Automatic annotation (TrEMBL), chains A, B:
The keyword Transferase applies. NCBIfam families: ilvE_II, PRK13357.1. InterPro entries: Aminotrans_IV, Aminotrans_IV_CS, Aminotransferase-like, B_amino_transII, BCAT-like_C, BCAT-like_N, BCAT_family. GO terms for molecular function: L-isoleucine-2-oxoglutarate transaminase activity; L-leucine-2-oxoglutarate transaminase activity; L-valine-2-oxoglutarate transaminase activity. It comes from Arabidopsis thaliana. It is an enzyme of class 2 (transferase). Its EC number is 2.6.1.42. This is Branched-chain-amino-acid aminotransferase.
């Protein structure tokens, strides 16, 4: 894993690769007491010709900067972030699965470390990256069965829903467990302000399709600006769909022809059913679904099956490091 | 400090007192990645006759249980919590300041530890308590100057605002820093749903006084059920005030005669001014203020100046441990 530290008011300097293992941290640190932490998630892919590549790390680097600004933390520079991800992947290159067998999931963390008792910015920041080989995020091979949550909310305006803050995740575990114990794959949250518009799942964005129009909630503070979300929007637009970022009501969701979700972990995953109170709606999935096409388009770029005309892939130089 | 661990599905057993120092934790732990953590805050007091006492630790124990239920964590039992606090205070008894010179602040933490990659309950929980001598929380000797925040919100319905989750704190640091740089002591948040009702400060509850009526926002999910809040409500009622827990609008706040805030750290602190957009309102403070009277009543009980008829104080037996 990669570890770098920086004191408040200073900048990150070169970190180092150390063996994966527990870290040592002050019981008084803001990450342990006040949730001052951000994370990122991206993947490394092994191509058929045995190259290792990562997907749009600049986007994750940028999002960590936005999040750090929101949580009053000092982030690494864009270059430091990308370089650190590369070093981590290189150090773990034997753990990148063969093509078709999975990917190496990379988890950068920015933590408020050091010791301080009051609610305030941390005296020290730790930038850490670990990695793990992963297969499919959701265990179902077909589409997801979602429950619309009308009890819990994920985010609110003037909160941290628009950045990848650790504080957005533990609060949704209860909703997720309740839904899973009732047989659902995941939960779809509604906006806290009106309870009428859809927002996102516990850890991925959502899209609905009707005719030629693909719609997804706008990133106006309560929606995580997903890298896969952005990439899929671009790919859908490329093949002639009209992509709209706007408020999407539950009513529209229930009347959609197709629903799918996106995220680094899930990639693109069709939603088979949505349950809202007592109403259960079934959507198009399988070969005829747009999500199937978009999933292929994206993974073909990621796996090097088709040429990356967008400049999204970053090669890891095996001779480096 | 005190440390105890328990695996998921099991219960906490007896922890132990260890020297204060950094803890070792997995980079994959839910506290570092997903904010799965709760904290508490309480104080130990040294009386004139050199006894050491703590204030209502059962209330903090209960609140940690409510929080653990919300964040899907395993908490210590009420008895384990109180016993662990006592052990921690005993081990740090030389650090309890003399009467009038401050108190020993005690910080219990419940952390999602162990290693897990996905958003899920932790495989292990760590219950940890550290302590530090403290003086006044706010550096001002007179009343606080608050800014009403109309940009950020602290909590939302269906969120975690009603429990002492770490996730409620790092998101408010930005608002606090902006207010402090503009010369304010602290921020007063409005409800996220309507933006019309007052909620609380970054780390304490609020009360308004008009005539014989003392009002404070209700603990219906977005307000932290403060132990000092509850105690002060009871004391105000005891001396003939009508105490109302109900929505309090900004308009009412601006028309109040007196405003004060409560919390373990601040105890009871008068608010001197509130600024809402361009409007600045000044309130009664000093000897004539109810908050001054309530502050005396509470600290007299805590410091053993008057008899504790409510059974709030728990003595630490110096012969134990």
């Amino acid at each position: 894993m990669y570890v770098a530290k920086c004191r408040q008011g200073e900048s990150f300097t070169q970190g180092k690769i150390v063996p994966y293992g527990d870290i040592s941290i002050s019981p008084c640190s803001p990450i342990l007491n006040y949730g001052q932490g951000l994370f990122e998630g991206l993947k490394a892919y092994r191509t058929e010709d045995d190259r290792i590549r990562i997907f749009r790390p600049d986007q994750n680097a940028l999002r960590m900067q936005t999040g750090a600004e929101r949580l009053c933390m000092t982030p690494p520079t864009l270059e430091q972030f990308v370089e650190a991800v590369k070093q981590t992947v290189l150090a773990n290159k034997k753990w990148v699965p063969p093509p078709g067998k999975g990917t190496l999931y990379i988890r950068p963390l920015l933590l408020g470390s050091g010791a301080t008792l009051g609610v305030a910015p941390a005296p020290e920041y730790t930038f850490l990256i670990y990695a793990s080989p992963v297969g499919d995020y959701h265990k179902v091979s077909s589409g997801l069965n979602l429950k619309v949550d009308h009890k819990y909310h994920r985010a609110h305006s003037g909160g941290t829903g628009g950045v990848k803050s650790c504080t957005n995740y533990s609060p949704v575990v209860k909703s997720l467990l309740e839904a899973k114990s009732a047989g659902f794959s995941d939960v779809l949250f509604l906006d806290a302000a009106t309870g009428r518009n859809i927002e996102e799942l516990t850890a991925c964005n959502i899209f609905i399709v009707k005719g030629n129009i693909v719609s997804t909630p706008p990133t106006s503070g309560t929606i995580l600006p997903g890298v896969t979300r952005k990439s899929i929007s671009e790919l859908a637009h490329d093949i002639g769909y009209q992509v709209e970022e706007r408020d999407v009501s539950v009513d529209e969701l229930l009347e959609a022809e197709e629903v799918f979700c996106t995220g680094t972990a899930v990639v693109v995953k069709a939603v088979e059913t949505v349950t809202f109170h007592d109403k259960k709606v079934k959507y198009r999935t399988g070969e005829a679904a747009l999500s199937t096409k978009l999933h292929s388009m994206l993974t073909n770029i990621q796996m090097g099956v088709v040429e990356d005309k967008k400049g999204w892939m970053v090669d890891i130089d095996p001779c480096q490091g």
